[in-house]
Amino acid sequence: PSGRMSREHALAFATTAGLTGVGSLALLVNPTTAALGAATIALYAGVYTPLKPRTPYNTWVGAVVGAVPPLMGWSAAGAPLLTPEAFVLSSALFLWQIPHFLALAWMYRADYAAGGYAMMPLRDPTGSRTSAVCLEYSAYLALLPVGCWAAGLTTCMFPIESILFNGAMLTAAARFHNAPPNQRSLQTTHARRLFFVSLAYLPFFFFCLLLHQRDRVKNELSESVVHSTTMPDASLAYPPFSDETDASGTGEPLSEAREALRRRGRRLCIHERMDSHSSLCP
Protein backbone atom coordinates (compact mmCIF):
# COMPACT_ATOMS: atom_id res chain seq x y z
CA PRO A 1 0.00 0.00 0.00
CA SER A 2 2.86 2.40 0.67
CA GLY A 3 4.17 1.93 -2.86
CA ARG A 4 7.69 1.07 -1.80
CA MET A 5 7.56 -2.12 -3.89
CA SER A 6 6.05 -2.27 -7.34
CA ARG A 7 3.86 -5.12 -8.53
CA GLU A 8 6.58 -6.11 -10.97
CA HIS A 9 9.18 -6.41 -8.20
CA ALA A 10 6.77 -8.37 -6.02
CA LEU A 11 5.96 -10.74 -8.88
CA ALA A 12 9.64 -11.22 -9.70
CA PHE A 13 10.53 -11.95 -6.08
CA ALA A 14 7.62 -14.35 -5.58
CA THR A 15 8.37 -16.19 -8.83
CA THR A 16 12.07 -16.52 -8.01
CA ALA A 17 11.37 -17.73 -4.47
CA GLY A 18 8.72 -20.19 -5.65
CA LEU A 19 10.82 -21.69 -8.42
CA THR A 20 13.86 -21.92 -6.15
CA GLY A 21 11.89 -23.63 -3.42
CA VAL A 22 10.11 -26.11 -5.66
CA GLY A 23 13.31 -26.82 -7.59
CA SER A 24 15.23 -27.46 -4.37
CA LEU A 25 12.56 -29.89 -3.20
CA ALA A 26 12.64 -31.72 -6.52
CA LEU A 27 16.43 -32.03 -6.58
CA LEU A 28 17.23 -32.53 -2.91
CA VAL A 29 14.12 -34.25 -1.54
CA ASN A 30 11.76 -35.99 -3.98
CA PRO A 31 9.32 -35.14 -6.79
CA THR A 32 6.21 -35.81 -4.70
CA THR A 33 7.18 -33.24 -2.09
CA ALA A 34 8.03 -30.76 -4.85
CA ALA A 35 4.64 -31.30 -6.48
CA LEU A 36 2.89 -30.70 -3.17
CA GLY A 37 4.87 -27.50 -2.70
CA ALA A 38 3.96 -26.28 -6.18
CA ALA A 39 0.30 -27.12 -5.57
CA THR A 40 0.38 -25.16 -2.31
CA ILE A 41 1.75 -22.07 -4.05
CA ALA A 42 -0.80 -22.36 -6.86
CA LEU A 43 -3.72 -22.84 -4.47
CA TYR A 44 -2.65 -19.98 -2.20
CA ALA A 45 -1.87 -17.45 -4.92
CA GLY A 46 -4.39 -18.58 -7.52
CA VAL A 47 -7.44 -19.45 -5.43
CA TYR A 48 -7.17 -18.44 -1.77
CA THR A 49 -5.87 -14.89 -2.28
CA PRO A 50 -8.47 -13.91 -4.93
CA LEU A 51 -11.25 -15.28 -2.70
CA LYS A 52 -10.29 -13.19 0.33
CA PRO A 53 -12.29 -10.10 -0.70
CA ARG A 54 -15.12 -12.14 -2.26
CA THR A 55 -16.41 -14.79 0.14
CA PRO A 56 -16.13 -15.79 3.81
CA TYR A 57 -15.38 -19.31 2.66
CA ASN A 58 -11.87 -18.19 1.81
CA THR A 59 -11.00 -19.41 5.32
CA TRP A 60 -11.81 -22.99 4.34
CA VAL A 61 -9.71 -22.74 1.18
CA GLY A 62 -6.87 -21.31 3.26
CA ALA A 63 -7.26 -24.22 5.67
CA VAL A 64 -6.67 -26.62 2.77
CA VAL A 65 -3.48 -24.72 1.95
CA GLY A 66 -2.38 -24.96 5.57
CA ALA A 67 -3.07 -28.69 5.66
CA VAL A 68 -0.61 -29.48 2.85
CA PRO A 69 2.75 -28.76 4.62
CA PRO A 70 2.37 -31.74 7.00
CA LEU A 71 1.90 -33.92 3.93
CA MET A 72 5.09 -32.45 2.50
CA GLY A 73 6.99 -33.38 5.63
CA TRP A 74 5.49 -36.87 5.58
CA SER A 75 6.45 -37.29 1.93
CA ALA A 76 9.94 -35.85 2.48
CA ALA A 77 10.55 -38.50 5.14
CA GLY A 78 9.93 -41.18 2.51
CA ALA A 79 6.48 -42.26 3.66
CA PRO A 80 3.60 -42.90 1.22
CA LEU A 81 0.86 -40.28 1.05
CA LEU A 82 -2.12 -42.61 0.84
CA THR A 83 -1.97 -43.73 4.46
CA PRO A 84 -4.17 -43.11 7.51
CA GLU A 85 -1.26 -41.34 9.21
CA ALA A 86 -1.01 -38.76 6.43
CA PHE A 87 -4.77 -38.23 6.60
CA VAL A 88 -4.58 -37.56 10.35
CA LEU A 89 -1.75 -35.04 9.97
CA SER A 90 -3.53 -33.01 7.30
CA SER A 91 -6.96 -33.31 8.95
CA ALA A 92 -5.64 -32.00 12.25
CA LEU A 93 -4.23 -28.89 10.57
CA PHE A 94 -7.36 -28.33 8.48
CA LEU A 95 -9.81 -28.62 11.38
CA TRP A 96 -7.63 -26.60 13.77
CA GLN A 97 -7.37 -23.62 11.45
CA ILE A 98 -11.11 -22.91 11.41
CA PRO A 99 -11.59 -21.97 15.11
CA HIS A 100 -8.10 -20.48 15.21
CA PHE A 101 -8.61 -18.00 12.38
CA LEU A 102 -12.30 -17.28 13.00
CA ALA A 103 -11.48 -16.30 16.58
CA LEU A 104 -8.72 -14.06 15.25
CA ALA A 105 -11.06 -12.57 12.64
CA TRP A 106 -13.65 -11.78 15.31
CA MET A 107 -11.04 -10.01 17.44
CA TYR A 108 -9.83 -7.88 14.53
CA ARG A 109 -12.97 -7.66 12.41
CA ALA A 110 -12.60 -3.88 12.08
CA ASP A 111 -9.12 -4.32 10.61
CA TYR A 112 -10.32 -7.01 8.22
CA ALA A 113 -13.16 -4.72 7.12
CA ALA A 114 -10.73 -1.86 6.53
CA GLY A 115 -8.58 -4.18 4.43
CA GLY A 116 -11.52 -5.26 2.29
CA TYR A 117 -11.56 -8.91 3.38
CA ALA A 118 -14.83 -10.86 3.34
CA MET A 119 -14.51 -12.71 6.64
CA MET A 120 -17.38 -14.50 8.36
CA PRO A 121 -17.47 -12.18 11.42
CA LEU A 122 -18.11 -9.22 9.11
CA ARG A 123 -21.35 -10.84 7.94
CA ASP A 124 -22.28 -12.07 11.41
CA PRO A 125 -23.07 -9.03 13.59
CA THR A 126 -24.12 -11.06 16.64
CA GLY A 127 -21.23 -13.51 16.44
CA SER A 128 -23.59 -16.46 16.82
CA ARG A 129 -22.66 -18.08 13.52
CA THR A 130 -18.92 -17.48 13.95
CA SER A 131 -18.84 -18.90 17.46
CA ALA A 132 -21.02 -21.87 16.47
CA VAL A 133 -18.59 -22.80 13.69
CA CYS A 134 -15.68 -22.50 16.13
CA LEU A 135 -17.43 -24.87 18.53
CA GLU A 136 -18.36 -27.27 15.72
CA TYR A 137 -14.81 -27.64 14.42
CA SER A 138 -13.40 -27.89 17.93
CA ALA A 139 -15.71 -30.87 18.40
CA TYR A 140 -14.43 -32.42 15.17
CA LEU A 141 -10.89 -31.98 16.47
CA ALA A 142 -11.81 -33.78 19.68
CA LEU A 143 -12.85 -36.85 17.66
CA LEU A 144 -9.49 -37.21 15.90
CA PRO A 145 -7.61 -38.91 18.79
CA VAL A 146 -10.47 -41.37 19.19
CA GLY A 147 -10.32 -42.11 15.48
CA CYS A 148 -6.55 -42.61 15.67
CA TRP A 149 -6.98 -45.21 18.40
CA ALA A 150 -9.90 -46.92 16.64
CA ALA A 151 -7.85 -47.16 13.44
CA GLY A 152 -4.92 -48.70 15.29
CA LEU A 153 -2.62 -45.73 14.70
CA THR A 154 -2.06 -45.00 18.39
CA THR A 155 -2.55 -46.61 21.76
CA CYS A 156 -5.62 -45.82 23.84
CA MET A 157 -3.55 -43.36 25.86
CA PHE A 158 -3.76 -40.79 23.05
CA PRO A 159 -7.53 -40.22 23.32
CA ILE A 160 -7.30 -40.43 27.11
CA GLU A 161 -4.63 -37.74 27.38
CA SER A 162 -6.32 -35.66 24.68
CA ILE A 163 -9.19 -35.06 27.10
CA LEU A 164 -7.04 -32.34 28.66
CA PHE A 165 -6.21 -30.24 25.61
CA ASN A 166 -9.43 -31.02 23.74
CA GLY A 167 -11.36 -30.14 26.88
CA ALA A 168 -9.58 -26.80 27.05
CA MET A 169 -10.33 -26.12 23.37
CA LEU A 170 -13.99 -27.10 23.68
CA THR A 171 -14.42 -25.06 26.86
CA ALA A 172 -12.94 -21.95 25.27
CA ALA A 173 -15.10 -22.39 22.16
CA ALA A 174 -18.24 -22.99 24.24
CA ARG A 175 -17.65 -19.85 26.29
CA PHE A 176 -17.23 -17.83 23.11
CA HIS A 177 -20.45 -19.32 21.76
CA ASN A 178 -22.41 -18.71 24.99
CA ALA A 179 -21.29 -15.11 25.45
CA PRO A 180 -24.30 -12.74 25.17
CA PRO A 181 -24.40 -11.01 21.76
CA ASN A 182 -25.01 -7.64 23.40
CA GLN A 183 -21.74 -7.85 25.35
CA ARG A 184 -19.14 -7.33 22.66
CA SER A 185 -16.24 -6.93 25.05
CA LEU A 186 -17.04 -10.28 26.68
CA GLN A 187 -17.33 -11.94 23.27
CA THR A 188 -13.96 -10.53 22.26
CA THR A 189 -12.42 -11.68 25.53
CA HIS A 190 -13.60 -15.25 24.99
CA ALA A 191 -12.55 -15.15 21.33
CA ARG A 192 -9.07 -14.07 22.44
CA ARG A 193 -8.92 -16.92 24.95
CA LEU A 194 -9.95 -19.39 22.27
CA PHE A 195 -7.23 -18.02 20.01
CA PHE A 196 -4.52 -18.46 22.65
CA VAL A 197 -5.77 -21.93 23.60
CA SER A 198 -5.56 -22.88 19.93
CA LEU A 199 -1.92 -21.76 19.86
CA ALA A 200 -1.10 -24.24 22.62
CA TYR A 201 -3.31 -26.97 21.18
CA LEU A 202 -1.18 -28.15 18.27
CA PRO A 203 2.05 -28.75 20.24
CA PHE A 204 0.15 -30.89 22.75
CA PHE A 205 -1.73 -32.75 20.02
CA PHE A 206 1.33 -33.67 17.98
CA PHE A 207 3.47 -34.44 21.02
CA CYS A 208 0.90 -36.94 22.30
CA LEU A 209 0.40 -38.33 18.80
CA LEU A 210 4.14 -38.92 18.50
CA LEU A 211 4.40 -40.35 21.99
CA HIS A 212 1.60 -42.88 21.57
CA GLN A 213 1.90 -43.79 17.90
CA ARG A 214 2.10 -47.35 16.69
CA ASP A 215 4.97 -47.85 14.25
CA ARG A 216 3.03 -49.47 11.41
CA VAL A 217 4.50 -47.36 8.59
CA LYS A 218 7.96 -47.30 10.13
CA ASN A 219 8.09 -51.07 10.27
CA GLU A 220 6.95 -51.37 6.67
CA LEU A 221 9.49 -48.86 5.39
CA SER A 222 12.34 -50.39 7.36
CA GLU A 223 12.03 -53.48 5.16
CA SER A 224 12.63 -51.60 1.92
CA VAL A 225 15.06 -49.04 0.55
CA VAL A 226 13.63 -45.85 -0.89
CA HIS A 227 15.01 -45.46 -4.42
CA SER A 228 15.96 -42.13 -5.96
CA THR A 229 16.95 -41.23 -9.53
CA THR A 230 18.73 -38.03 -8.50
CA MET A 231 21.24 -39.44 -6.02
CA PRO A 232 23.62 -42.38 -6.42
CA ASP A 233 22.94 -43.77 -2.96
CA ALA A 234 19.25 -43.53 -2.18
CA SER A 235 19.65 -45.26 1.16
CA LEU A 236 21.78 -42.34 2.32
CA ALA A 237 19.40 -39.75 0.90
CA TYR A 238 16.26 -41.30 2.40
CA PRO A 239 17.15 -43.65 5.24
CA PRO A 240 14.25 -45.99 6.02
CA PHE A 241 12.35 -45.51 9.24
CA SER A 242 13.54 -47.83 11.96
CA ASP A 243 13.34 -48.03 15.71
CA GLU A 244 15.90 -50.81 15.80
CA THR A 245 19.44 -50.20 16.96
CA ASP A 246 22.19 -50.11 14.37
CA ALA A 247 25.48 -51.95 14.34
CA SER A 248 27.07 -49.47 16.71
CA GLY A 249 24.42 -50.18 19.30
CA THR A 250 22.81 -46.75 19.17
CA GLY A 251 19.15 -46.36 18.27
CA GLU A 252 17.14 -43.53 16.81
CA PRO A 253 17.31 -40.71 19.40
CA LEU A 254 13.69 -39.67 18.94
CA SER A 255 12.40 -43.21 19.40
CA GLU A 256 14.61 -43.76 22.44
CA ALA A 257 13.34 -40.55 24.03
CA ARG A 258 9.76 -41.55 23.28
CA GLU A 259 10.20 -44.96 24.88
CA ALA A 260 11.78 -43.35 27.95
CA LEU A 261 8.76 -41.07 28.30
CA ARG A 262 6.44 -44.04 27.96
CA ARG A 263 8.26 -45.90 30.73
CA ARG A 264 8.05 -42.89 33.03
CA GLY A 265 4.37 -42.50 32.24
CA ARG A 266 3.68 -46.11 33.15
CA ARG A 267 5.17 -45.53 36.61
CA LEU A 268 2.51 -42.88 37.23
CA CYS A 269 -0.42 -45.13 36.32
CA ILE A 270 -2.45 -46.44 39.26
CA HIS A 271 -3.19 -49.80 37.65
CA GLU A 272 0.53 -50.33 37.00
CA ARG A 273 1.19 -49.92 40.72
CA MET A 274 -1.59 -52.39 41.52
CA ASP A 275 -0.16 -55.12 39.29
CA SER A 276 3.63 -55.14 39.15
CA HIS A 277 3.81 -58.47 37.31
CA SER A 278 2.47 -57.24 33.98
CA SER A 279 2.44 -54.05 32.00
CA LEU A 280 -1.17 -52.99 31.55
CA CYS A 281 -0.52 -49.49 30.30
CA PRO A 282 0.12 -49.27 26.53
From TrEMBL:
Alphabetically ordered keywords of this record: Heme biosynthesis, Membrane, Transferase, Transmembrane, Transmembrane helix
Top-level taxon of origin: Eukaryota
Keyword hit for Secreted: no
Transmembrane region(s): 61-79, 86-108, 137-160, 194-212
Record's protein name: Heme O synthase
Source organism of the structure: Strombidinopsis acuminata
GO molecular-function term, one example from the UniProt record: protoheme IX farnesyltransferase activity
N-terminal signal peptide: none
Membrane-topology descriptor: Multi-pass membrane protein
GO biological processes: heme A biosynthetic process
Record's keyword annotation contains Lyase: no
Compartment(s): Membrane
GO cellular component: membrane; mitochondrion
Pfam families: UbiA
